[in-house]
Queue: 4 jobs
Job 1
Amino acid sequence: EVQLVESGGELVQPGGSLRLSCATSGFTFDDYGMSWVRQAPGKGLEWVGSINWDGVTTAYAASLKVRFTLSRDNAKNTLYLQMNKLESGDTAVYYCAAVTSDYWGQGTQVTVSS
């Protein structure tokens, strides 16, 4: 059974940092590029960024690349998203997904508020 389980979301103050994790199982993790996608309240899905199979190449939404960093640990079958200098506009449910597949996690809530 394919599983992608996000964690690390919580309430954080503006300017703070969080690291999200996406633990995967049931498929060959390093066969896939991976992405983070988010959905803010009342809005559609927004691509955050992607990372290739070995972690060498990353791509980000232009508005996020200065503050967000994707990484992965293929030995642990885990994807990460480091988020710095968080803003209220980063409040969203964050999902991880395997590129070119329908493998998605259930999401983790990030709330940025004072």
Job 2
Amino acid sequence: QVQLVESGGGSVHPGGSLRLSCAASGFPFSRYVMSWFRRAPGRERVLVANVIPSNTTTYLLDSVKGRFTAFRDNDKNTLYLQMNNLRPEDTAVYYCNRPSGGIWGQGTQVTVSS
């Protein structure tokens, strides 16, 4: 069974950090491009980052550049999103995605507020 399970969300103050994880199972993770998306309240879901199998980030949303890092560990079948210097506008549900086949995780909530 193909599955993506996110974890690591939570509530932090502005300037704080979180690391999201996406545990993949049921498919050869190391062969697939993986992505992070987010959906802020009342807004459409947007692409945050793409990471190709070689662990190169081929896309990063402009508003998170210099603050977020997306990377993967193919040995652990896990995709990560390290989020530093968080801002209130980063508040959203974050989703892990495998573009090929349109596989989505259930999402994890990130809330940034003072």
Job 3
Amino acid sequence: QVKIVESGGGLVQPGGSLRLSCVASGFTLDNDGIGWFRQAPGKEREGVSCIGSSGGTTWYADSVKGRFTISRDNAKNTVYLQMNVLKPEDTAVYYCAAIRSSGISWGQGTQVTVSS
């Protein structure tokens, strides 16, 4: 069964850090581009960051550039999103998606709340 599970979300104060993990089961991520997306209440889902299959190509939304870092460990079938200097506007449900030849596989999301 193909499954993607995100974890690492939580409540953090402004300026704090979190590391999100995206773990795949039922398939390997080696050949897939992986994207992190987020959706805040009342807003559309937006792209945050993505990484190519080899890890050599990355992209970041302007709003997170310089604060977030995406990486992957294909041996662990995992992609990470290191989030530093978090701001209240980063509050959202964060989703991981694998862009596969058969289509896009989404996880269920993990809540990130940045508040004092």
Job 4
Amino acid sequence: VQLVESGGGLVQPGGSLRLSCAASGFTVSRYGMSWHRQVPGKERELVASIDGAFPITNYPDSVKGRFTISRDNTKNTVYLQMNRLNPEDTAVYYCSAQLGQRDYWGQGTQVTVSS
């Protein structure tokens, strides 16, 4: 199992980014997938999840209406579309796959929101 994130970078407040999580070793359409973020000194925070069996998504209030998780089964990839970004969204963003009793993680991609 491997998860590789990409798409992070520097963006101005109010801007948008789309993160990608390319998966290998399993099929993303069959398992729950999620995005998390972490800043130094704080716990990792869930920002979006999508169910494996059904396209049911879930977001915390801090990103609801701004972030959208989706998946492309033909590319075996999960995305996180982030709009109306603000400096509080600055963090390392991680993709995660929930495969049975174990969670797998990518290496993370840095998102910096700054003018």
